[in-house]
Amino acid sequence: MSAEYYRADSEDGDSIDDPSEDALFMMLSDLNGTDNTFVAIRPDQDDPVWFASVTVLAGGGYEVVLHDTARNEHRSTVSTRIHDIARDLTLWMADRDSPGP
């Protein structure tokens, strides 16, 4: 079964369909600077119009990239608070157009 709205995948192969804020927090908590350096979130469809990614920075913290071609939006920020990142991602994704039926 595929995701109804979106899917989150991490570098280490962890994947969650339609992750909640808590699930995103857990995925982000598992990131490290060696073999699990990013999480990518996007609609579960071919050629999605938006994506979000969170990457561990070498100097500490996380780079958050939000990209939506339908809204001509591309933002990149840096944060150290995983809870805030998970909450902000959840709110941002809730505002995207649903790819579902």
Description:
With 101 residues, this protein is of the alpha+beta class. It has one domain. It has helices at 21-29, 82-94; strands spanning 6-10, 15-17, 38-43, 50-56, 62-68, 73-79. β1 and β2 (15-17) form a beta hairpin. It is globular and about 35 Å long.
Give the count of helical stretches. Answer: 2
Distance between the termini: 14 Å
Q: What kind of assembly state do the chains in view correspond to?
A: single chain
Uncertain spans: none
Summarize this structure as a short list of keywords or feature phrases:
six-stranded antiparallel beta sheet, 101 residues, alpha+beta, 2 helices, 6 strands
Short description:
The chain has helices at residues 21-29, 82-94, and strands at 6-10, 15-17, 38-43, 50-56, 62-68, 73-79.
Topology record:
Elements: E1 6-10, E2 15-17, H1 21-29, E3 38-43, E4 50-56, E5 62-68, E6 73-79, H2 82-94
Antiparallel strand pairs: 1-2, 1-3, 3-4, 4-5, 5-6
